[in-house]
Design brief:
Blueprint (H helix, E strand, L loop, with lengths): L3 E6 L2 H8 L9 E4 L6 E4 L1 H5 L8 H10 L3 E3 L3 H18 L2 E6 L2 E5 L7 H16 L3 E6 L2 H13 L6 E3 L6 H7 L10 H9 L5 H5 L3 H19 L17 E11 L2 H21 L2 E12 L10 E12 L2 H15 L6 E9 L2 E2 L19 H14 L40
Parallel strand pairs: 2-4, 7-8
Antiparallel strand pairs: 1-6, 1-7, 2-3, 5-6, 9-12, 10-11, 10-12, 10-13
């Protein structure tokens, strides 16, 4: 029987902030979205005082101050690097690893020495000791059951962060405990429908007839049902599935009216999108740019638009992509508007070594190879921190950048912000 584990970082963004400030242990923490807009992450202590997930900061500010909640702007450079450190530890010890998200990964623990439960507890202790990030481990014969086991491990203190569904003396009790909305693969719409039918938990869903589930919830619902019965339906992948489109966009820290600022922002966002494109070994044949004003500012002139720019030859070359995106931005820009946000999207993605050829493409011997240059740029930025090597088109001062007034230092990726320890 296969044994899968779902390793999930607990309150990941808040845990990253605590890793470098031990004095925050036990204190409530929230992390805000771009431009310090809404609450996107909460520690358990912040949940206990009623900090609402997704709540606008300006509405919750009084509540947070009264309860002594530490507030942080999002620090994605830190979170991304800490995630990479956690995943490297997991990859070092797990026979097989599938990264599911920034703070989650599936591991194949089939046949590990000493049993999956003992292995999971050693893995949890090692990750916490080496990275400072607490994790929970759920183990099951399918990915869906491993997900439920992880949820159970988090909510039940007696599990001490690890729960093995395969060794549970009463697995049906665990399924009865799991609410239908907590089952992986059952979205809010299907969960609402199932509750109306009297199906309130995972055990009741497991007992439904296969034909009915397939008819009402398609093959995805049927796979969830079978996985709850212990029959694996989701293959174990050794790497992330490549995206079909890549989007990079941000809201501005202040209203932007000048074309030059928009062109800088477009170049910066395209730089990020191109990095992601090359990371999955793909090239893009289509660029789209978009921008819009703040629709919530009533009484102000409103405008939004988008422009598609096809590329004659699919590429992952950042300067080529920036040039295409900026040409589109120039066409949709309008004066006398205060813009709130712009962004770029790459589509028509193909494998870099399996792309469709074009009649406009040069013969292989005459075609300039831009990949070594892009590889060098990516390597330098990965080793020494984001924007160590930047493109001039993205500007220097970047006054349009999003507002992050409460951002913690980027301890692990920027030399000037390294943690300083003073011995007295």
């Amino acid at each position: 029987m296969p044994q899968y584990a779902l390793i999930d970082c607990n309150n990941f963004y808040a845990s990253c902030e605590r890793a470098f400030r031990p004095g925050l242990k036990g204190r409530p923490i929230v992390v805000l979205s771009n431009n310090d807009g809404c609450i996107i992450a909460r520690s358990n202590e912040a949940k206990a005082v009623g900090a609402p997930m997704g709540g606008p900061y300006f509405k919750c500010r009084g509540l947070l101050e009264r309860n002594g909640v530490e507030v942080f702007s999002s620090n994605y450079a830190l979170y991304g690097d800490m995630s990479a450190r956690v995943m490297r530890v997991l990859a070092r010890f797990c026979p097989g690893l599938e990264i599911y998200s920034i703070d989650e990964a599936f591991a194949d623990l089939t046949g590990v020495p000493g049993g999956a439960d003992a292995f999971g507890r050693r893995l949890k202790a090692t990750v916490e000791a080496w990275t400072g990030i607490p994790v929970s481990v759920g183990i099951g014969p399918t990915k869906t059951l491993a997900k439920l086991a992880n949820h159970f491990a988090k909510k039940q203190p007696r599990c001490r962060g690890v729960f093995d569904f395969t060794t549970s003396p009463d697995p049906d009790r665990v399924l009865r405990w799991a609410e239908i909305g907590d089952v992986w693969g059952i979205g809010p719409r299907h969960a609402k429908r199932l509750r109306k039918m009297g199906v309130a938990n995972a055990l009741e869903f497991r007992e439904l007839k296969r034909d009915w589930v397939k008819k009402k919830m398609t093959i995805t619902g049927l796979h969830t049902l079978l996985e709850l019965r212990g029959w694996p339906c989701h293959d174990f992948a050794t790497g992330p599935v490549g995206k079909k489109t890549i989007v990079s966009s941000r809201s501005f820290g202040r209203p932007v009216t000048e074309l030059d600022d928009l062109l800088e922002a477009t170049a910066q966002y395209m730089t990020r999108a191109a990095e992601k494109l090359r990371r999955q070994n793909s090239v893009a044949s289509h660029v789209m740019v978009f921008l819009h004003t703040n629709k919530f500012k009533l009484g102000h002139p409103q405008y939004s638009n988008a422009e598609s720019v096809p590329l004659p030859v699919a590429t992952g070359h950042t300067p080529t992509l920036i040039k295409a995106a900026q040409s589109g931005m120039k066409r949709i820009y309008r004066e006398d508007y205060a813009f709130k946000k712009c962004g770029v999207m790459l589509s028509g993605l193909e494998p870099v070594n399996g792309r469709w050829l074009s009649l406009l493409d040069l013969p292989p011997d005459d075609r300039p190879d831009d990949r070594p240059l892009m590889q060098a740029v990516d390597t330098l930025n990965k080793r020494w921190g984001r924007d160590t090597v930047a493109f001039a088109a993205s500007g220097i001062k970047r006054n349009w950048k999003m507002k992050r007034e409460m951002r913690s230092p980027r301890y692990t990726t920027v030399w000037e912000e390294l943690l300083t320890v003073r011995a007295e």
